[in-house]
Design a protein that fits this description.
Helix 1 crosses helix 6 and helix 6 runs antiparallel to helix 7. The longest helix is centred in the middle third of the chain and has 16 residues. This protein has 284 residues and is an alpha/beta fold. A hairpin with a 5-residue loop joins strand 11 and strand 12. It is built from eight helices and 13 strands. The chain has one domain: Ribokinase (UDP-N-acetylmuramoyl-L-alanine:D-glutamate ligase, 3-Layer(aba) Sandwich), CATH 3.40.1190.20. The strands form two sheets. Strands 5-4-1-8-9-10-11-12-13 form a nine-stranded mixed β-sheet, with helices on both faces.
């Protein structure tokens, strides 16, 4: 089983929009609402490809949270929603342009306190083979606790991985550095990896959008699709890589599945709208 820890977000995404003008109404042709967040999207993507997945995250007791929970349950994700959190589910409002670029506005909601009192993931480890941390920068509690979770996972004999996001606080290696000794895999896009700087220890996968990815410096070409919205594509990439690896695929084949899943994600508005199942993905 794959254990994912990370943020769960209700996304509201629309576009393409060339520009906004105050005191007017814009009518974009594409809208998508529902499941988002690095943790939620990665968990959904891996489960959509047939992996057994457990997600540990923070979720509010509101309609937005209910929609996200139902979406995860629809593909069999075992959702563990941390108790004792007050406030609403995290929400992101986003607009995208014709070229796929995005502008996002975010309310963290219950994520501001998620993982604060969670010193161990042992209670959620039954049957787990792999721990994946989805963007520690998105949740204050994960900034502080990710290294401890990964150390615990390594001691349990699990495979470990982490996906970067953009660190708006600029702490970068202050957060990731303590995690490196316990990581098997580190994922990030080119801008994130450049901001992070040189790393030693884990194997590195660099997500390069339409160009595909590099794995340990080896280029794995991407797939040519019409890009609609890039929201969540990197998380779907990770979910594809993890699911393929758990099926026993070799690294380069897993990277090809990951590229395909990233391409499927950008082909429709919303992070998971365009995702297909395993058979359709590997035969396409």
């Amino acid at each position: 089983m794959l254990l994912v820890v990370g943020n769960l977000v209700y996304d509201w995404i629309a576009g393409p929009v060339a520009e906004l003008a105050w005191d007017t109404t814009t009518w974009p042709p594409e809208f998508a609402t529902g499941l988002g967040g690095n943790g939620g999207t990665t968990a959904y993507a891996a489960a959509r490809l047939g992996a057994r997945v457990r997600l540990v995250t923070g979720c509010g007791d509101d309609l937005h949270g209910l929609v996200c929970k139902e979406r995860l349950a629809s593909v069999g994700v075992d959702g563990v929603y941390l108790p004792g959190l007050t406030g609403g589910t995290a929400v992101t409002m986003g607009l995208f342009r014709e070229d796929g670029a995005r502008a996002l506005v975010h309310r963290p909601g219950v994520l501001t306190a998620a993982f604060d009192g969670v010193s161990s993931l042992r209670a959620y480890g039954d049957g787990v083979r792999w721990l994946h941390v989805g963007n520690p920068f998105a949740v204050p509690g994960l900034r502080r606790n990710a290294a401890a979770y990964l150390r615990e996972a390594r001691e349990a004999g699990w495979t470990t991985s982490m996906d970067l996001g953009w660190d708006r606080m600029g702490e970068w290696m202050g957060v990731v550095g303590p995690c490196l000794p316990y990581l098997d895999w580190l994922f990030g896009n080119a801008a994130e990896m450049e901001a992070l700087g040189p790393v030693a220890g884990p194997r590195v996968v660099v997500k390069r959008g339409a160009a595909g990815c590099t794995v340990d410096g080896v280029v794995v070409p991407g797939f040519s699709v019409r890009a609609v919205d890039s929201t969540g594509a990197g998380d779907c990439f990770c979910g594809g890589f993890l699911a393929a690896s758990l099926r026993g695929m070799g690294v380069l084949d897993a990277a090809r599945v990951a590229n395909a899943y990233g391409a499927q994600s950008v082909s429709a508005a919303g992070s998971t709208t365009g995702l297909l199942g395993w058979a359709e993905t590997v035969s396409g």
